[in-house]
Amino acid sequence: MQLYCESLTHYKRLATREVKIGDLLLGNFHPIRVQTMTTTDTMDTIATVEQSIRCIEAGSELVRITAPSKKEAENLLNIKNELRKRGYSTPLVADIHFTPNAAEIAARIVEKVRVNPGNYVDKKKFEQIEYTDAEYAEEIDRIRDRFTPLVKICKEYGTAMRIGTNHGSLSDRIMSRYGDTAMGMVESAMEFLRIARGETYHNIMLSMKSSNPLVMVEAYRLLVKTMFDEFGECYPLHLGVTEAGDGEDGRIKSAIGIGTLLEDGIGDTIRVSLTEDPEFEIPVCKDLVKRYERSPKDGKTERPKDAAGKRENSSGLADLWTSRLAYSPFEYKRRETFAVDNIGGKHVPVVVADLSKIEKITPVHLQSIGYTYDGITDKWTIADAAADYVFTGNQLLDFALPGTLKVIVYPAAWELAEDKTKYFPIYSDSGYADAENKSARINFVMVDCSGEMELNNYPYFDQLANEPSVVLCLSSTNSNAMQSVRAMMNELIRRSVKNPVVLITDSGWQTPDEHLIHFATETGALFLEGMGDGICLGYNSQAQMENIQSSGRTYLEVKDIYQFTNNTAFSILQATRTRISKTEYISCPSCGRTLFDLQETTAKIRAVTNHLKGVKIAIMGCIVNGPGEMADADFGYVGSGPGKITLYRGKEVIKRNVNSEVAVDELINLIKESDAWVEV
Ligand code: SF4
User: Fold this and answer.
1) What is the pTM for the complete model shown?
2) Could you tell me the distance, in angstroms and rounded to a whole number, from the CA of residue 638 to the centre of ligand 1?
3) Which residue has the least CA distance to atom 8 on ligand 1?
4) CA dist list (Å): 541 to 101, 224, 547, 567
5) Residue 314's pLDDT is what?
6) Which of the listed residues 167, 210, 590 should we mutate to test ligand 1's pocket, taking the one with most ligand atoms within 8 A of CB?
7) Tell me, what's the pLDDT at 324?
8) For residue 646, how far is its CA from the centre of ligand 1 (angstroms)?
9) Contact 211/636 with Cβ under 8 angstroms?
10) If residue 100 lies in a helix (H) or strand (E), which one and from where to where?
11) pLDDT attached to residue 595
12) CA-CA distance, 588 to 619, in Å (whole number)?
């Protein structure tokens, strides 16, 4: 194994230990299992059973149920019995926070327990404590005393366990020593894992969840490396992004975090946490997982064949380039580039909208990409999520453009364009090398990273490298496209080539959900590596765009494909925190602890705050876990009792137990008092 995965250039699944959850096998190249969690009150047996059945019917292979105290843990028996009576044998998972005694009961009943090492033994007081090594060792002994009984019960009953670290709920001990870091998350889980191994208990999987995909990806990678370094083997990994939210944004955030790791061959089971009914999470999980199929030959997971029947293409240097890795996959650092006009350097990544398939572009078409024209005043209104460039193929536009929009065209059209401050050419690499006329400001150059291109011998490096007007547009038609582009990016870094790069990604999928996941996975993975100064999303064919299916099992409805594509590009940049263009919502998926209707409340809060660009608002169902898990939100709206809401600014309680009828108004007041409010 190199670094943190089996291959950085091909899809190769990470080898992990096999674990058994009831009759379900997980890890060791078994299919990537999909799962979800109920949102009903665990004491309501029938409601929980019926929701579990809806999840199972949707395809959930494991169902998690919260057990906040002993009585809920005990009621898991009734839930399990009723499910078995109705013919469902799907393994159940008890979700435990703060209550070892509930865990010890649940471990005797259900097939798996999930513990959070941040709060299994510790109560969070947000204290910064200076530990000596001896004091720290004493703390570990205290954990051992409290955790070992559960390990022994799991061993005796054949119960599996997930050690599930959450970025937002690290213990004071971990925070004091490691801070709010990926390493802290890893160490939090490793402390528990070492104790379990000491008891020769191995029926374990781990998770490193965060609402920030960047932190989450780094933590999983670091965990894999740490396990291999320390044990020489890896336990299966449960992937998830917490509090991802709902709708398109929730799906994009999840796809970026989970998809990036799946691309690296990491992940044995996944849960997509959406603020929606849990059965709606399963199709998203399935869309993520079906990108990797099981081989009928040996049952191992591999990349599906592409249209040409090939499994994968090499990106040239194969895995050799891992020994030439020029960036750290464990910490974010944006690739250093020089600025070409407003692309690269310190500029936020630009969005390029591909309108080349429209026969005759009019001002109305620009509305889909954020520019609304008012004929009476002859003025353009520009949205926060307005594309920076538009690619029109061979078409020159016959109307005056909004001030901030520029046009990319093929060289022949560019030659004819009168306003060379608005129009810029895009060349193939060989075309650029041969061109007589070039723009003095920006030349876009397409570089295809597909096939068996030897990066070592890429013939155009010399002509393109560090040319001050050249923006590279990287793409690949390989089935392992992300890895192929990443290999080229690595080569650019290694050779100190500092031209900015626009990532071009086309989708060959069918439904809006599939496209969304494809775009988020392929480009999101690269933005998380600090690679990319622009994004351009497109489709393999015109017919595919026209026939985009937005009915049936698809969740997302697409009325305007260009608007969908443009919004997706901005949402990817937002989720990777490379360009903030809207309010960010961190909302918990809800569970049996939830004290109000999360979906309805999230929609209400969203409706009145969605113009607050860059503000992060957390909407959390309960005060037990909510404050810990709302991560780096600026404001928090947290259920603190039936009909009661507690409002936070950062981690500080500002208003306690506000009546829920006026809580949204109070939240607005709080945002105003904090000078974070702007009028629409
Ligand atoms: S924050 Fe939300 S999902 Fe987490 S325990 Fe509370 S109600 Fe459940």
Assistant:
1) 0.89
2) 10
3) 591
4) 58, 39, 10, 20
5) 39
6) 590
7) 79
8) 14
9) no
10) helix 100-106
11) 86
12) 7
Take atom 5 of ligand 1 and give the residue whose Cα is closest. 625
* pLDDT at site 456: 66
Helix-helix angle 70-85:45-58, to 10 degrees = 60
Backbone φ, ψ for residue 33 (5° rounding): -80, 145
What distance in angstroms lies between residue 38's CA and the mean position of ligand 1's atoms?
11
Residue numbers of the chain with a pLDDT score lower than 50: 1, 296, 306-311, 313-318, 552
CA angle 176, 177, 180 (to 5 degrees): 70
Residue for token pair 């059973």: 49
pLDDT at 502: 98
Residue where the block lists tokens 């059209």:
413
Read off the pLDDT of residues 230-272 as tens digits, 9 standing for 90 and up.
999 999 999 999 877 778 888 999 999 999 999 999 999 999 9
- Which residue's CA is the closest to the ligand 1 atom numbered 4? 625
Measure the CA–CA gap between 314 and 126, rounded to whole angstroms. 49
**What pLDDT is attached to residue 276?**
85
Residue (of 309, 307, 305, 267) closest to 288 by Cα position: 267
* String of DSSP letters for 208-261: EEBSSHHHHHHHHHHHHHHHHHHHSS---BEE-BTTB-SHHHHHHHHHHHHHHH
What is the distance between the alpha carbons of residues 33 and 35, in angstroms, rounded to a whole number? Answer: 7
Q: Token match 């592409």: residue?
A: 306
Kindly state if the Cβ of 620 falls inside 6 Å of ligand 1. Answer: yes
Q: What is the dihedral of CA 232, 285, 151, 210, to 10 degrees?
A: 80
